[in-house]
Each structure stands twice: as C-alpha cells, then as structure tokens.
Specification:
By secondary structure, this protein is mostly beta strands. It has one domain. Helix content is 3%, strand content 62%.
Length: 133
Amino acid sequence: MVDLSLGRQAVFAGVGNGTIDGGIASVRLYDSRVKLLGYYGTLPASEQKFELIGDQKNNFMLGAQVIGNPTDYARVSLSYMRKDIRPESYWAIRRDSLNNPVQVDINPTATAEEYMSGDFNIDYKNSLCLREK
C-alpha cells in the first residue's frame, strides 16, 4: 500500500518533526511488517501564514524513516532528518562607538540541523508467557 500527501504537512517521523509545505510518501511492504516513509518540503512562512516562504532553496526539511515489526510484540525503527534555515535579512538602527544612530543591514547566518536516531520497542505484556494455576 502506498500513501502520498501533498500540501502543508505535520511531520512526526522519529527525529523528524515539524511542519512543511511539501509532501510525505509512505510504502508498506511484507504484509505491513516494514514501512518506508520519506518527506521533503519548504518550511512555512513565519506565523504559519498561508503563503510560500521566499527563499525556498535555503529553508527546507527532508528526512526518512524505516519501521520494521519483526514479531507481533517488537518494533525497530531508524530515522533521519535534515533541516536548513536561513532567516531573511533586515535593516535595523544600531549605535556606533560615539552613540550615533546608524542603519545596519543584518544578515543572520544560516543554521542547519541534522539528526539520526534508532528505536527498539518491545511490548512485554504480550511477549511473556504467563501461566495461571
């Protein structure tokens, strides 16, 4: 089974979480024992406005997650996420060394986040064989 979603998306995929204007695709394989999920999109405009951000190539999030269920009571997952953020430049009034107001162009530096994670879960309640007397 394949799922594809386009538009403004809420991403919850292991280490990848946030909101993107893009797409999420997922595929289930081997009787739904393996799920592959990938996403890519630009970050939304400030204050979640209904518009696309201006600098799309420098403000994006991408990632993937692989989830496996080797047994009915165990789950294994690996996830990866990369997020690049470059805030817009702006003009501001600052004081020089003589305390005179000077207009200055502020160019914030770009930031990037990159994470990888692995998870392993066991449902002990269903995995233990308990006998009643």
